[in-house]
From TrEMBL:
<keyword id="KW-0472">Membrane</keyword>
<keyword id="KW-1133">Transmembrane helix</keyword>
<feature type="transmembrane region" description="Helical">
    <location>
        <begin position="161"/>
        <end position="184"/>
    </location>
</feature>
<feature type="transmembrane region" description="Helical">
    <location>
        <begin position="133"/>
        <end position="154"/>
    </location>
</feature>
<feature type="transmembrane region" description="Helical">
    <location>
        <begin position="16"/>
        <end position="36"/>
    </location>
</feature>
<feature type="transmembrane region" description="Helical">
    <location>
        <begin position="105"/>
        <end position="121"/>
    </location>
</feature>
<protein>
    <submittedName>
        <fullName>Uncharacterized protein</fullName>
    </submittedName>
</protein>
<dbReference type="Pfam" id="PF19540">
    <property type="entry name" value="DUF6064"/>
</dbReference>
<dbReference type="InterPro" id="IPR045708">
    <property type="entry name" value="DUF6064"/>
</dbReference>
<feature type="transmembrane region" description="Helical">
    <location>
        <begin position="48"/>
        <end position="65"/>
    </location>
</feature>
<feature type="transmembrane region" description="Helical">
    <location>
        <begin position="71"/>
        <end position="93"/>
    </location>
</feature>
<keyword id="KW-0812">Transmembrane</keyword>
Length: 195
């Protein structure tokens, strides 16, 4: 079982030590998302894959998981990073803005959730900076963003990456709110179930 106090103390130390990486990763993701919607192209797709490959490698190497979680989630994150990197060259995944309105609105909701709603719910739950999971430097909100992009990519989606994102999303979405009081992870559960 994870000790919430130890976990959030580790997150606090991590956030302070990597600042301003939180701002850099968020700004880059917002720019790439904007480009995907207004100027979708092969180059934008490659840039998003580079971004996702970097962030998942970052989680594997830098995020303060401990013990078995460090090994398990570290392996999952490094495999996802490698698969996104390989897809820069194989182009099996094609990120795009969905044509159907329901899917489009849900994708936008998930992206908004990752960027803004997730930290807002954390803040309202009493998790203040630096004891907060932030987009781009913490897995949970970034998983939501990644699943949103992959939902838009269907049918040209990397099935292995999709599966590697869905199972931790559902697991974390069910367990983290209860064990750590991160109620924003219910958004992760929603994205995992929808995926």
């Amino acid at each position: 079982m994870i000790d919430a106090e130890v976990f959030f103390n580790n997150v606090s130390t991590y956030n302070v030590s990597i600042f301003p990486m939180q701002i850099i990763t968020l700004v880059l993701a917002v720019i790439l998302t904007y480009l995907l919607f207004v100027r979708p192209s092969t180059i934008v797709n490659k840039l998003i894959k580079i971004y996702l490959s970097f962030t998942f490698a970052w989680f594997a190497l830098m995020f303060p998981f401990e013990g078995v979680l460090k090994i398990g989630f570290g392996l999952v994150h490094i495999v996802i990073a490698i698969l996104f990197f390989i897809d820069i060259f194989t182009a099996k995944i094609e990120f795009k803005f969905p044509e159907t309105s329901g899917k489009r609105y849900f994708m936008l909701f998930l992206i908004f959730s990752a960027f803004a709603l997730y930290p807002l719910i954390e803040y309202m739950s009493g998790h203040l900076y630096p004891k907060i999971l932030l987009f781009g430097v913490a897995p949970c909100p970034t998983f939501i963003f990644s699943l949103a992009l992959l939902i838009g990519a269907v049918p040209k989606v990397g099935k292995i990456i999709f599966i590697l994102l869905i199972f931790p999303a559902i697991f974390s979405g069910l367990s983290v709110p209860i064990m750590l009081g991160v109620w924003a992870d219910l958004l992760l559960l929603v994205s995992g179930i929808y995926g």
